[in-house]
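pasting for ref
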Amino acid sequence: MAITKVVLAKLSPTMDEGTIVKWTKNEGDPVKQGDVLAEIETDKANMEMEALGSGVLRKILVPAGGKAPVGSLIGVIADANEDISKALAAASTPARPAAPPAAAPQPAAPPQAAPAPQPAAPAPPPAAPPPQVAAAPPSPPPSASAPPQPAPAQAAPPRPAPGPAPAPGPRPVPAAPVAAEGGRVKASPLARSMAAQRNIPLGEVAGSGPGGRIIKRDIEAWAGAPASGRAPAQAPAPPPGPAITPGEEIPVSNMRRAIAKRLAESMFTAPHFYVTVEIDMDAAVALREQLQRGEDVKVTYNDLVLKACAKALTRFPMVNASWMGDKIATHGEVHVGVAVTIPDGLITPVVRNADRKSVLDISREVKDLAGRARERKLRPEEFMGSTFTVSNLGMYGVTEFTAIINPPESAILAVGSVQEVPVAIDGNLRAGHRMRVTLSADHRVVDGAMAAQFLGEVRRLLENPVSLFV
């Protein structure tokens, strides 16, 4: 039987190394061609790697938690009695070990271990060898203004632990909310939107509006936000990730390394410029509330924005294009990326042919893609190939921001929150709903007038949202 070398495959187009999350086979286990051998963390998602041959998994060269470059030997499959010494000798670059646990960060002091507190001479440093750091990046040189100091003769006093944060006062027990006919809680469209974005159960919020109707300030009061209408006191909790201790050195994940590389390349090579418009969302708020009553899918403002962008891109193909150095490539299809926050960073699942899909189809697809993105279960074709991206921070109370273009695209739209604000119409003030969006555009492809016209079309569609369903 021929020996099969288990080589770390390139599981995403931008992958240059991978982390072995787990082996699904142990050394000595029988393996058939096509069996899943291991789960690999790439720069985008966790992917399964299949066996390319049959036999016995004779050797695992990179254990779970270790890193290895693409193309390196991580295991060997062969017959139970076959000599695999030559295959093992051909193993190239050793894998990088797993990062040390976060609970034991490296000290910022010189290499000598800190002595134990003794009244006389300090204790000798520990005899255990330091953790392996052969593949870790070199430490930065010490600052010239703070040269390394010799170990003190007496241990420094321990840093006092910070005092406990004051315990928050008990949340006041709300009065029973008033229900409309049919048992539905009475609330304004904006209040329903804010509650949905922050996962606040309306049944627990006391209404202070007319007839006990729940309004914006009631949601803010429940969530502990300031009444000024700015960002909430506490943004929605981020997806669960590793606990971070102040002062520790955090190993860079494959995903974070890819984000740093691509966005630095974008920011320093593509000449960004920014155009902002404010959109009247009154009609969109009313339409969304109607949809919430009659549809199983809970449509978000972001779903409406995605559809509006998709339709506008068909009218402005240069915004749906890429700079190719000696030419500009316009894309025949509209594939809209949706920025999704996950514990390791950011990923952009793609709604393909978004211009041909209904708002409800887009809503269902985004929820599915975002859920699997947070579980790192997306396939490469589900997060690659977008032609335009939408990034929304409205659920965090952000009113306006700018985003970095996702290369090789030529533009990205940054979406703020829907705000209830005073609006002057014909000399009279009334409450209205407004949302600000900012287009970041690559000036090599998109000019200012075109960016303004594109945003004007997005605004027209959102201010007449019935057109999104035609």
